[in-house]
Description:
The complex is a heterodimer. Chain A folds into two domains: 3-54; 69-165, no CATH class. Chain A is mainly alpha-helical. Chain A is 77% helix and 0% strand. Mean pLDDT of chain B is 81; it is low at 1-5 and 105-121. The termini of chain B are far apart. The longest helix of chain B is centred in the N-terminal third of the chain and has 23 residues, at 32-54. Chain B is built from ten helices and no strands. In chain B, helix 2 packs across helix 3. At the A-B interface, helix 2, helix 4 and helix 5 of A face helix 3, helix 4, helix 7, helix 8 and helix 10 of B.
Amino acid sequence: MAAICVWVREQLEPLIDGDLAPARVDELRGHLAACEACREHYAEASSLPTRLAVVRTPEPPLNLVRDVLRRVRGDRVGPMRLWGPLGLELVLFLITLWYMSGFGGLYLLVQRTAADAGAVLGWDLGQANLPPPAAGDLFLLLLCGLLVATTLYHLTLLARLGLRLS
Amino acid sequence: MFSERALTALRAQVTGEPDADTLAQAAQGGDLSAFEGLVRRYQRRVYGLAYRHLQDPDEAQDLAQEVFVRLYRNLGKYDPERPFEPWFWRLAANVAASYRRRRPAAAVELPATTAADAREDTLPLERALADLSDDLRLPVLLHYYLDLPLDGVAASMGLSLSGVKSRLHRARAILRRVLVEEDA
């Protein structure tokens, strides 16, 4: 390839963009009129901007909109709404603990439940009598119900923001 | 003489679809369905930019998500007196330009046959574009694919106007040489 062709081809893009001085433009156009190989480069260079504007791209994934909205909804949930239930859960747990006379009471409850379960199992195998029914405690039932409801709501909220938290 | 913005509004009236500016203003006011409308409207081009920039579908999806999440978080900064699109593409360009800096590309090992098949399926221009270095490919995509003005590309990439022009010239020269060789 002639040195003049190298020189001309280095300036094809500025020529197409109109970035060259008129004298230089005339010089380049003179060479292009006479050189078929450089004209081929010029033709390719001229069509490139248009071809780049319509370059093929794959379809976006179907879940793109859904995933964006999930993340955005995560943004909409403020920290108070997200972690507020944790405070309520803690309060309910502490009241339960106080009502059960601390960890000792809670341990006693677990122990009794385990003993009752064992007795039911033994009764089923014909080795023991059925345990007497436990005394009802409406306040404790209410506390446990509230604790379960709050925890379920909180878990739903966290699950909805699953990806955001991972 | 109608402005581009007035024409867009007129087109929206004829087709019955809200234009991007209207959707952006509604989204700014907290309307999530308007925001969803914006995502649906621009998802193809945003994903297209991300895919051509990163050459990896998973990373492209991540970047496209990031662009829209950043849009949502920055809606408060959008001036409703100005057209939405240039502002949005500028934001998308910023996110795309900073994405690689924040998160270096994962070394994805594609099975040899898959990579070869994918290459067979692409046009010469797409292959040549993929082979460009990041610093040359991104300005090409921002200016020609997204139609971002040169000063917008310069601001997004932290370059001078002449720096952007120089990169565009270099990138196009490389593409042109590859395409001429392919034709020969």
